[in-house]
Design a protein that fits this description.
It is a single chain. The chain has 9 helices and no strands. The longest helix has 18 residues, at 115-132. With 161 residues, the protein is mainly α. 69% of the residues lie in helices and 0% in strands. It has helices at residues 2-12, 17-23, 28-36, 39-54, 60-68, 74-90, 103-112, 115-132, 139-152.
Length: 161
């Protein structure tokens, strides 16, 4: 069961086994890989960049260029998971958050957009994840589109003063 995976993982890694399993969707081997890489700490950078983009403190093209340098496109995968978690928070569900260690950041994200805008962006993130895996696709362009959409979402309805 879940306990045996946690016990095995604790024997393999020094990190927070329950968190690692949560981030790995319960898969012990994936959790071990997360513990051995820099993804757990990098997530804090990526979620911060999403928040900075919404606040106008970061440039979507520059962030896209940085993210596209990640060969496995981890930032794109995790951006989707942050948006999904922000949606969960909007629905009052903090129990099933994946990125529980980033709760403060996720709360900030949840307040930035309406649920319908979040849903649209989540669909877009998932769609772009699928596209990004296809050969010959311009990954940087995909990321630019997604991050520009994220930066501008919800502004069309705002009344200009």
């Amino acid at each position: 069961g879940g306990d045996s995976g946690r016990i095995w993982l604790e024997s393999q890694v020094a990190g927070d086994a329950p968190l690692l399993l949560r981030l790995a969707d319960g898969a012990p081997l994936r959790a071990r890989d997360l513990a051995n890489g820099d993804t757990v700490t990098q997530r804090r950078v990526w979620v911060g960049q999403l928040i900075d983009l919404r606040r106008g403190r970061a440039d979507p093209l520059r962030v896209a260029a940085e993210w596209s340098g990640d060969e496995t496109l981890r930032p794109l995968e995790w951006a989707g998971s942050f948006i999904a978690d922000a949606l969960r928070l909007q629905c009052g569900d903090s129990e099933s958050l994946k990125n529980i260690d980033l709760l403060d950041n996720l709360r900030v994200m949840a307040e930035m957009l309406s649920a319908s805008d979040m849903h649209a962006l989540l669909e877009s993130a998932w769609h772009n994840q699928r596209l990004a895996r296809q050969p010959g696709v311009n990954r940087q362009l995909l990321l630019e589109e997604l991050l520009i959409d994220w930066t501008r979402a919800g502004t069309a309805r705002r009344v200009q003063a």
